[in-house]
Design a protein that fits this description.
Elements lengths: L9 E2 L3 H7 L11 H12 L7 H15 L4 E6 L10 H22 L3 E6 L12 E4 L2 E4 L13 H4 L4 H19 L12 E6 L3 H6 L1 E3 L5 E3 L4 E4 L9 H8 L4 E5 L5 H11 L8 E5 L10 H9 L5 E4 L6 E3 L5 E3 L1 H17 L3 E8 L31 H8 L5 H6 L1
Parallel strand pairs: 2-3, 2-15, 3-6, 6-9, 9-10, 10-11, 11-12, 12-15
Antiparallel strand pairs: 1-7, 4-5, 7-8, 13-14
Helix pairs in contact: 1-8, 2-6, 4-6, 4-12, 9-10, 11-12
The structure holds phosphoenolpyruvate and cobalt (II) ion.
The site of cobalt (II) ion has 5 residues, from loops.
Length: 406
């Protein structure tokens, strides 16, 4: 709730030089430094996209999730398209989050906090810097805020003005949420919160604002996360999240060591504050056993983290003709094993993180759908579950330990 009419609009000028000096993976090679500087300045003076009260509101709710009062459903596109931020698009995404959230609620016997990978999920980490197309090497596609997916040198050239397009699309999506009654003025049970990977530092650092209580918050989203490829404890991404008062999340995968996860917890949750830190496990169905020592170590170190299952990113495979896909049975199996492992390890089994779309797509394999190249395979990055597949996956979110005490 608004406690003050003071706007939280002042850009934080101190953080940028610090972050610019730290090692940062996965950043584009912008071709024009002067253009980049002018875009950064424009973003730094632009209105915040989310308010500090909104950010605090989600952090408080996640704090209650750490006490067991709520579960979390976080879902949306792998790479969002700024052209799909109209009220019609957002309305379909809201409907999807509603249906999936209801299923998670039924499986956990708890009300659900619904969060979109939405209103800012425009930058992607990639395994390779370049890829071959018809005999030439091109920079990879890094998301709509950096370049375009078509395999031509012009399309793949990073363009800083795309960050402004991303900002405006995020603003449109947030306005649409307000218009649908699911934004700033919605009751907390009705509200759809926003999240994205805080990857593109030129954008995110420009969107840090001072709030009236004196600290800094990221005004581009309620809930930023960092990914598996940028979670180095000495790197710029971890430092950025450490400086913010938002609730924050970090992906962890099968190569994560106990030392690494403890270093992340120390950096991102030094105060051991319920709701501050969420760890999103993305191991893959056949490697999920490696999660168990991490859950135990984090619990022993006293961090009240929320554990979410991302059963997507560890289960990516190729079809015989080279399309990226994911099998629904592997996704379901990872979810079930996650629930077991986190519960046995004494962690807070808090919810699901999915890549899914309300559109008529066939990108993942299962529930009667087989991915083939064509109009039903149109993701900008990773394969997403369609609604039927996402419903089936969410139905595997059944937490007997939570139901027993509900
Ligand atoms: C993603 O969430 O789209 C992603 C790239 O995830 P990860 O960092 O876990 O690979
Ligand atoms: Co993805």
């Amino acid at each position: 709730m608004a406690q003050s009419s003071l706007p939280d609009t002042q850009h934080d000028p101190l953080l940028a030089p610090v972050l610019d000096d730290l090692p940062a993976r996965q950043q584009p090679d912008w071709p024009d430094a002067a253009h980049l500087a002018s875009v950064r300045a424009e973003l730094a003076s632009a209105p915040p996209l989310v308010t500090y009260d909104g950010v605090r509101g989600l952090r408080d709710l996640l704090g209650r999730a750490a006490e067991g009062d709520f579960c979390v459903l976080q879902a949306g596109d792998c790479a969002e398209d700024p052209a799909e931020c109209t009220i019609g698009d957002i309305s379909r995404k809201v409907d999807m989050l509603g249906v999936l959230g209801d299923i998670v609620r039924a499986g956990a016997g708890r009300p659900v906090i619904r969060v979109g990978r939405m209103a800012g999920q425009f930058a992607k980490p990639r395994s390779e810097k370049r890829e071959a197309h018809g005999g030439t090497w091109l920079p990879v596609y890094r998301g709509e805020m950096v370049n375009r997916p078509e395999p031509t040198p012009e399309a793949r050239r990073p363009d800083p003005s795309r960050m402004l397009t991303g900002y405006r699309a995020a603003r449109d999506a947030l306005t649409a949420l307000d218009t649908l009654g699911r934004g700033e003025r919605a009751a907390s049970q009705e509200r759809i919160w926003t999240s994205h990977e805080a990857l593109l530092l030129d954008y995110e650092v420009s969107m840090v604002r001072r709030h009236r209580a004196g600290g800094g918050y990221l005004a581009s989203t309620h809930w930023p996360w960092i990914g598996e490829r940028t979670r180095q404890p000495g790197g710029a991404h971890v430092r950025l999240l450490a400086e913010l008062d938002n609730p924050v999340a970090c992906k962890v995968g099968p190569t994560t060591t106990v030392e690494q996860v403890l270093a992340l917890c120390a950096a991102l949750d030094p105060g051991r504050a319920p709701g501050r830190l969420t760890l999103i496990a993305r191991f893959g169905a056949d490697r999920i056993a490696a999660l168990a020592p991490l859950v135990r170590a984090v619990r022993r170190a006293g961090h009240p983290v929320l554990w979410l299952s991302d059963p997507m990113h560890g289960n990516t495979v190729r079809t015989p003709d080279g399309l990226k896909t994911r099998r629904l049975d592997a996704i379901m199996s990872e979810i079930r094993r996650f629930v077991q492992i986190v519960t046995d390890g004494g962690g807070r089994c808090a919810g699901l993180h999915l890549e899914s779309s309300p559109h008529d797509i066939a990108e993942c394999d299962g529930a009667g759908f087989t991915p083939v190249r064509g109009p039903e395979y149109r993701t900008l990055c990773d394969p997403r579950l369609n609604l039927l597949q996402a419903v089936a996956a969410s139905a595997h979110w059944y937490v007997p330990a939570l139901r027993a005490v509900a």
